[in-house]
Structure formats: structure tokens, C-alpha cells
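Researcher: Quick sanity check before group meeting.
Model: Go ahead. Protein one:
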Amino acid sequence: MKILAFETTCDETSAAVLEGRSLRSNTVFSQIKLHRKYSGVVPELASRAHLEKIPFVLGGALRRAGIGVPLKAGAFDAVAFSRGPGLPGALMVGRVAAEAAAELSGAPLIGVNHLEGHLLACEFEKGRVARPLKFPLLVLIVSGGHTELWHARGYGDYKVLGRTRDDAAGEAFDKVAKLLGLPYPGGPEVEKEAARAKGKGPDFPRPFMPGTRDFSFSGLKTAVSYYLAAKLGQDFYKKGLRLPASEIALVCRSFQDAAVETLVKKTADAARSLGLKRIAVGGGVSANGALRSAFARLEDLETRFSERAYCSDNAAMVALCALRRLEAGKFRNSLRVEPDLGSAGWAG
């Protein structure tokens, strides 16, 4: 079974070819340089960049997979794309590209959930689908736009237990980095600075939100802002005032410690309350070394992460979602699948 997949939910343009259990190609173009000067993703610029780059990304994926162009009937058994959640304009680019490829190859079109992709990315090992998930398990999706807990009972059978009420964890990392004068994307920069920290830093709150499995990182970000205002003055950001390098490192470590402890405790508590022994963590923030180390210290729970190459947005995970749906005989066999801004489960 050969599947062509597209991923265009935010600021990565990606195309991949999955044949059987082997990933033949996974081409990704990142828009980081485009959005860096704005310290975040600008939706309209992202959509235009997807439109500009998707022909080249697709061409690269097809060449690496040894597939000729133009596409011919029978080239693929299915064409998949991320139908959401994501930026509406960006999603539209991926959908139209997938529709065209499905029409040319005569293959069914499968719209998959982007967040499910982050979960199933945990099954890849060195370019092969070699680590099937064992259900049931507790899922933490943690990225720039989403922080969610799911009870996964099987492929496509997911119950959302909690999600962020404001800033997602990755969004909070990016905003804190911006406050500190660090470049975008902020997550890797905060992690790098935190590793340099020596001594005791500020004590930031842990937003555990007792009585709910939802998340809220806006208050943690605001606590960092208040700390910086107390040290530098209320208009520190507009005036371009920044802490010395050694203090920036301490703030990064303290913020990261608070975010990681919150994510791990709420995830572990949810798993234990449901009697689950396995956890899977996916999404861009799952590449964070401190988060991985904290989960590894949970002796009573087995935690699975995706390889770092598949943590950020990519079409390989989209192709795998389509494969699992085809194997289950559950997919939308149509040449048009509308974008979906919701999350979790198999729609249609």
C-alpha cells in the first residue's frame, strides 16, 4: 500500500510517501526564517509560503521516493492531508494539493486529524513503522497551539480529557522567550538557556488547576512578565531592556521547571486515576529534554516519545494516520474533504 501525504497546518510545508511500513520520503520546508522577525507565526504569510513552496516540497518527496511526474493513475493507493486543526488558509493549501494529487492518481482522498498524527508519530523508528502503540494509554499532545490529554482506547478511539483554556505550553515557551529577548522559535532557546543556569532562580507558580484536567499557561507566562517588570521597570520590553545573560538563564530554567512539572504531574495523575500504565507524548514540545527526563523518572508508568525528527509537524505522521484508517476500513472516500478545526477521533 502506497500513500502520499501533505502537512500544512501551520508553518511547515511537508510531503511524504509511505509504502507499506517503510517511509520512502519525508520532505519538510520550515518557515522559521520568515516568521522570526515577527517573533511568531503570521497566518497570512504562512498561507502564502505554503502556496509558494508546496510544488517544490512535493517534487522533492516524489523524487526521493523514486516516483515519476506527472502523477499517473494508480501511482498511489491513497492521498492524505491534515484537515485540521490549524490555520484555515494554510489548511486550504494542503487540501487543494491533495485533491489534485488524488484526481491525477485516481486514489481516495483521506483527511486526517493533525493531532492524531503527533500521537502516531511515536510508532516510527528510523524511517519504519516499527513500534506499534499498545492500547489503552494516556496521551499528552503538547505543541505550540495545543496542550491536550486523551484517553486512547484504540486507533481512532480517543476521548479528550482536558485541553488548554488559554496559552498552549509551546505558545507560553515562545512568549516567555520573546519577553527575554530570545529569538523565535522560543522553545529550543529557552531549553538551551535553562541548561546554562547556575544557582537559584525565581520561584514561579505551578498552574495545576486542581479538580480539572485542563491546562492554563497564561498565568505562568504573566508571572514571568511581572518578575521582569519588577527587575527592569514596567516598560522594559518597549524600551529594549533585558536581563544579564546569567539571569536570563535562571529565568528560563525556573519557567521550564514550572511548565514541565505541571505537564508531567497532570498527565501522570490522569493515567493513574484511569488505571493506565502507558503514556504517549507527541507534539513539538515533546522534543524538550527536560520534559523527557521528567517522564523517565516516573517508575510506575511507561512513557513513549516519538523520535525527535518526528516531533514537529511533518507529513510522515499524516501518512501513518491514513494507513491506520485504511487498515481499519474507515475513511472518507471522496475527492473533496473539507478542513476541520476540531480535534480528536476519526471524522467520516
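Researcher: Fine. The other one?
Model: Protein two, sequence then structure:
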Amino acid sequence: MTEIENSSSILIVDDNTLNLDLLSKILTKSNFQIVTAVDGIDAIEKVAFYQPELILLDIMMPRLNGFETCRQLKQNPLTRDIPIIFMTALADTENKVKGFNLGASDYVTKPFQKKELLARIKSHLQLFNLGSKLKNQNNLLQKQVIDKYEAELQLLEANEQLETANSTLKAEIENRKLIEIELQQEIGERRQITKELKKTLEEKELLLKEIHHRVKNNLFIVSSLLDLQTDHIDSPTVIKMLDNSQNRIMSMALIHEQLYGDTSLSRINFEQYITDLTDKLNSSYLTKEINFYIDVEEIYFNIETATPCGLIVNELVTNSAEHAFKKRSEGNIWLSAKKDSLGTITLIVKDDGIGFTDSKVFYESESLGMNLIFTLVEQIEGKLELKGDRGTEVKITFSELDYQNRM
């Protein structure tokens, strides 16, 4: 066989699995690509999907026999050119004539001879390939004729347009000279406008940096004033409230500090922010030795999302440090933030503290910190989940909200 025939695909349709296995082995050894079907309905579905180059079709099958299968395939413009060889024990002339009238290419009578079968398959594949080549050549020739005709029409139209264009060419050349002079003037004006816009943009960026710098400084000043105020207060409860307020102010100040040092002035690197926040908390505010384990992807938030997220992390971390390790002097806190392909962000804060047995203690708490967490989660349209069997784990899922661009 030729190289093309050896790579040809053949669909074998037979409800007898022994026949299917035997034919598949014979044809596979001859380097054909084999697809099998157990009845006519299965065959029609697989022909549409695999587009075989030849079909070996049994006649006596359940659901849909070979004659009806052949009729439907030959009525379909997409499959009617595929050669069909009937395989059957019905050797009478009437059935053969019926098959040929339906469009079959040949008959193989069971039990068949291997060499005869391969010879018939080879012959019909060669005819099919030659027919396909001839059809393609005819289509190509027709296309070339049409293309040539269209090209001649276009050439005639182009000649007419050229004659019309020649009559106005001189006037257009003069007009273009005038346009070129005007364009040079406009280019000069645009360069000046671009220069002024660039200067304005630089001034705006500088102003935004200065605003973020001053906001950060003012927040740190407020935090320092709260720190000074604690020196004149004896109540531990009030001191703790002032410390918590300092933490919240510090978490907001870090956002403006990062914006001041970033060139975009609009996006927060949440990974860097979480690292800076935990460092500040651990070194300045937390009363216990906390080991932080941070696993945060490189996610960027706008300021409207970063601020509530930072406050949520601050509240959860300080809450764990204050309540999760009551009988210990140190503890471990894990912080994780991941973003999936749909843009959904999962933020997890987990500790190995005492945990809780009743989630109502968490959800029904009247403390300012817990109320603040619920409010902030609602603000970012997130969902909060809680586990408390082994330490405490708080998982918040949300998507960054869209806000109008400032620049």
C-alpha cells in the first residue's frame, strides 16, 4: 500500500464483538487507523466525529440495520462521499442490488478472506483518494477561474478610477503642500501641549505623593498622641482600647506609606503590606511572642480594598494574640492570601491557640473589634467562615470591587 493508504482511517461497524476484534487486528497490522461501532446509530455519531476514509458496514444489526445506516450516510452531504463496503452473510443478488442502489461501493461476504478484504479496501481507498484529489483540483480550478474573472473586473474598475484620479492629481498635489504646512504647525502645537500635559501629570503625581506622605505622617502623629495619652491613664481597659486604636491607625498609615513609595500611586502590594504590618505589630504592640508564617501571593489591591483588608488582618491578629494564648507566653499565627483564576481572593488567618467549642461566642460577640470585622467583611462584599476545633481559623473569600480610576 502507499504511504497515504497506510495512514487511512477505517470505521468498522458490527454488533459481533468477535468480528470487531478480528477485523481490528487485521487492519491495525496493516497500519490502518481503526474506529469501531456496535450498531448503525453508534456508527453515524462516530462518522460525524472521526470522518473516516472508508466504512466496513455489517447489514444485520439491532436498532438500525446496515441498509438504513447506509441510506442516512449517503443523504448527508458531509458523509455521502465516504466509500462503504457491506460485510454480510447475505449473498443473494437482491440484497447486493439493494446495497448498491443505496450507494454502497462493494460487498464482502462472510466469512471473508484476509487478502481479498485488504485488496478491496486498498482499491476503494485508492479510488476515494483519487476522487478527493480530483474534487479538490476541480474546486481549485473553479476558484482560479472565478478569481481571474474578478481580477479582470477589478482591473477594469481600477483603470476607470485611475483615469478619474489623474484628472485631479495636480490639484491634490497642491492641496497636500498646503496640508503639510498646516500639519507641521499642528505638530509643533501638539508637542507643546504634550510637554505641558507631562509637566501637569508630574506635578499631579508629586502632589499625590505629598498627600499620601502627609496623611501617613498625620496618622502616625495621632498614634503618638494616643501613646502619650496612655501615660496619664491608670485603667488597663482604657489603655488596651487606646493600644487597639493605635494598631488600627498604624494599619491605615502603612497603606499610605506604601503608596508614597510606589510609582503607581493607586495599587497596594498586599504581600509586602502584610509583611510590614506583622513586623510592626510584633515589634511594637503585641504583648506575647508571636511567630508569624506568611504565605501571601503577589496580589495588588486598590486603596478601597486594601484598607478594609488591612484592618481585618489587624483585628484578627491582635484578637488571636490577646485571647488565643491565655495560658502561654508565645504562639503561632498563619496568614495566607491566594487569588484564583476567576479573581476570587481567599484570606485565611489561623492560630494554634485554645480555639472554641461554640461559634456563637465569635458571631455574637459585642466587642468593637468583632463588630468592626463583620462590618469590614460586609463592606468588601465578602463571606466569612470560622473553624475553632484546633485553634481558630477565619477564612474570608471576596473579590476586589471596581472603583473609578483617579488618574
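Researcher: One line on it for the slide.
Model: Residues 114-230 form the longest helix (117 residues).
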